[in-house]
Amino acid sequence: MRVLVTGGGTGGHFYPGWVVAQALREAGWQVFWLGSTNGIEATKLPSSGIPHRLLRVTGAVGARPLAALVSLLRLVPALAVARGVVGRFRPQVVCSVGGYASFPGAAAAAAAAVPLVIQEQNAWPGLTHRLLAPWAAAIACGFPQALRAFPSLPASWTGNPIRREFFLLPPAPARRALLVLGGSQGSQFLNRVVPKALSLLPPGQRPQVVHQSGERWEQEVRQRYQELQVEARVVGFLPEPWQVLKEVPLVVARAGALSVCELAASGRAALLIPFAHAAGGHQLVNAQALAGTGSALVVEEAQATPTAVAALLQELLQDPSALAAKGALAKTLAVPDATERVVRLVSRVAAQAEVRG
Predict the structure, then answer these.
(1) Residue 150 — φ and ψ, nearest 5°?
(2) Range of 124's domain?
(3) 105: burial class by Cβ within 10 Å (0-12, 13-18, 19+)?
(4) Same domain, 349 and 315
(5) Are 257 and 206 part of one and the same domain?
(6) Nearest 5 degrees, angle CA 251-CA 277-CA 149?
(7) Which own/partner contact pairs does 66-72 have at CB distance under 8 Å and 24+ positions apart?
């Protein structure tokens, strides 16, 4: 059996597809990946052993008019390449994991009458998947809230496939320690606000801090902490974030779908500051899903001043034991067998296509 995985761009789109692709390969499937030269897949796929093709595509949503026009023009040659890949690889099914990189492969699948499975990570789906949904044979939703975006379509709640190491973490330790996560690319907003907020805490009440800054801002953030005289370990990217999560009871983060699901699987309390300009406000909806378990507080960007964040951190960290118990509530949102659910869905759609063929 052959599956074409299409999409990526950010870690939130790439890693769920990566987990599903690895599970399918272990089951004997041939996997081919169509991604973007600008996405995280450009650095991860070459050493993975997964055959792939990277397209020169970029995102148009939220871009300036000229950049959006360039993005749309790049779709024309990308669609031609994607149709060639579909024709040569001849997949029984295409699995779209979202992001701007997913459209050429998914559109090529529709043109070739190859059944499409959509794996939508967010509580409110992105534009690409909302456009592609009418052509999908099945839609796997990472959050139950996403089902309402696909009325009368074959959508089901599977949970988001995430790496199994997050489920294997021990309960949160009762200690004053903090992890700052801005997503795979980092968050300039968190990089500015959190160091300043920590500097407002009395020196004796400051937690131990690990701050994932994004590789392009690593040196700048390290210097900011030094200037504010706040001790922190600054890293550009954490390829194995569970190694730090096992040492902390609290995480300050954006609210990308993958980050939220990883926090749920880990059983960690969180202070979430959703990206205000996320398409369709999907990060706020993701954050509210985790907050509904009682494990997270949500502060929108407009209210997330250094003073406000400092007050919340001081309140959360004053009782590490209660904070650890609060984090355990997050597990009610976790779906440990999400990968298996998506794999079964892909397998079923492919088998039905074989029967019809």
Answers:
(1) -125, 55
(2) 2-160+336-356
(3) buried
(4) no
(5) yes
(6) 90
(7) 71/100
Amino acid at 115: P
204, exposed or middle or buried, with CB in 10 Å at 0-12, 13-18, 19+? exposed
Instruction: Tell me, yes or no, whether 224 and 327 share the same domain.
Output: yes
Shared domain for 144 and 8, answered yes or no, is yes
**Cβ(161)–Cβ(339) under 8 Å?**
yes
pTM: 0.86
76 in the same domain as 41: yes
Q: How confident is the model at residue 68 (pLDDT cuts 50, 70, 90)?
A: low
Contact 180, 209 (CB under 8 A): yes
Q: What is the CATH number of the domain that holds 145?
A: 3.40.50.2000
Alpha carbon 223 to its chain centroid, in Å, reads 28
Tally of domains in the chain: 2
Residues 125 and 273 in one domain: no
Residue 201 near residue 229 (C-beta atoms within 8 A): no
> Under a CB-based contact definition with an 8 Å cutoff, are residues 237 and 213 in contact?
no
Residue 306, both tokens: 């250094």
Whole-Å CA distances, 321 to 2, 61, 168: 49, 43, 20
* CA dihedral of 99, 102, 103, 109, whole degrees rounded to 10: -160
pLDDT exceeds cutoff 80 at 280:
no
Mean pLDDT over each residue of the chain, to the nearest integer: 92
DSSP 190: H
270, 252 in Cβ contact below 8 A?
yes
Render 27-62 in DSSP notation, one character per residue: TT-EEEEEEETTSTHHHHSTTTT--EEEE-----TT
Query: Are 33 and 150 contained in the same domain?
Result: yes
